[in-house]
From TrEMBL:
PANTHER family: FAS-ASSOCIATED DEATH DOMAIN PROTEIN (PTHR15077:SF10), FAS-ASSOCIATING DEATH DOMAIN-CONTAINING PROTEIN FADD (PTHR15077). This is FAS-associated death domain protein. Keywords: Apoptosis, Cytoplasm, Immunity, Innate immunity, Phosphoprotein. It comes from Cyanistes caeruleus. GO terms for molecular function: caspase binding; death receptor binding; protein-macromolecule adaptor activity. The keyword rRNA-binding does not apply.
Length: 221
């Protein structure tokens, strides 16, 4: 089983932890609640196995101080190995220790809508975004990283997607677009996608997005 290691060696520069979104009106941060639940369900043997699998991305000194799943997850968040919109590494850990029940919790978290609707585009814009994303996913191909850079996505996120979904181009494109929407929140706009496509000279894809959006807007009148 492959675990991402590029850029996360023991001597690597560790970026500051970014704020984890998702608290909203529900009062409890969904992502932290998920990690707390997973941590509570781990046996000492399972925690030991997970620590072993992390030895290439977490220094020995830090691993020796880990006494619980919460300790381990805090480090992984700090090093940006896991985030509310990037659970692939956590999924691999849970697959390795064969905890299907915890994997089910993970899947449920990903399927549920966040508790902060104020941080999402309005309903009409979400419908337009969904349509635009489908068109881009089917047409942008290997130019996805170029597009994401034009949209301002941090390079570390792009490298993480490429590593986590190596040799799976379709999934790389899907995850990149999904994470862009999550990153932008209510500021995610179809107009920005079209502008970025044209900025990359992907004019045919931009035309197709505009055509699809025009169809949807005409149909809602």
């Amino acid at each position: 089983m492959d675990f991402p290691s590029r850029g996360f060696g023991q001597d690597a520069q560790i970026s500051p932890a970014r704020p984890v979104p998702g608290a909203g009106p529900c009062g409890v941060n969904r992502f932290l609640s998920l990690l707390h639940s997973i941590s509570s369900g781990l046996s000492d043997t399972e925690l030991s196995s997970m620590k072993f699998l992390c030895r290439d991305i977490i220094s020995k000194r830090k691993l020796e101080a880990v006494q619980s799943g919460r300790d381990l997850f805090s480090i992984l968040i700090e090093q940006q190995n896991i985030a509310d919109d990037n659970l692939e590494f956590l999924r691999r850990l849970l697959q390795h220790i064969r905890r299907g029940d915890l994997l089910s919790q993970l899947a449920k978290f990903e399927e549920e809508e966040p508790c902060a609707p104020d941080d999402q585009p309005d309903g009409h814009e979400q419908r337009l975004l969904k349509a635009a994303v489908l068109v881009i996913h089917d047409n942008v191909g290997r130019e996805w990283k170029r597009l994401m850079r034009e949209l301002g996505m941090p390079e570390v996120k792009l490298e993480r997607i490429e590593t986590d979904y190596r040799d799976k181009l379709s999934e790389q494109v899907f995850q990149a677009l999904r994470q862009w929407q999550s990153w932008k929140g209510k500021d995610a706009k179809v107009a920005d996608l079209i502008q970025a496509l044209r900025g990359c000279n992907l004019n045919l894809v931009a035309d197709r997005v505009e055509g699809k959006i025009s169809e949807l807007n005409t149909g809602t009148r």
